[in-house]
Each structure stands twice: as C-alpha cells, then as structure tokens.
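Thanks for the sequence, V.! I ran Zinc knuckle CX2CX4HX4C domain-containing protein right away. Repeating your input here for the record:
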Amino acid sequence: MVLHRLGVNECVSAVCCDKAYFWVQISNLPSRHMTKEYGALIGSTLGEVILVDASESGRAWGSCVRVRVKIDITKPLCWGRMVRLSGSYRRWVSFLYERLLIYCYWCGET
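Predicted structure:
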C-alpha cells in the first residue's frame, strides 16, 4: 500500500502513486566492491538512489550494501541481475527489499 499525505491545496486526482521508497539490500558483492560508489551504481539500475548506507570512509559493512531507492512500482521488482564490477568481471548480485512482506522472488510480483 502506498500512502501520500495531501497538502492543503492538493487535489486527490493530481496525486501520482506510481513510485515508492525502499531500502534494498544488495548482496553477493566481493568485499572490495562493498562501497558507497558501487552501491549507488548498482542501486541506480533499480531507480533513483536516495541514500547509500555506508561509513564516512565510503565502506559498507556486513554481508550486503543497503541502498534507499525510489522505485517505479508499476513494474515488477527485480530480484537480482548480472553487473560488471571491474573490466570484464561480471557477477550476479541479489536484491532483498526490506519490509516487503509479500513478494514472489520467482516472478517479481507483489
């Protein structure tokens, strides 16, 4: 469910609810690519990157890189993709959408 708080002079029919904000966990990255830069680069393939959860040095810690992304929810959500990390090195990365309770990782439908 997508909610939108109406402004004082905002008309209900003018509200566009086709985008939503998600925290997305990007996993299966080698440790040297667990950075703010790669998080933003990979996150931008999903939608508009708002924030990458990383330390001041730009490193992400743990098993994934967390990225806040504004995503077009009229399309199926992507559960992973092949990304080029450096040169011709390609790797599959997986996406986990935080707090999304009903989601089919097979077809991408909610």
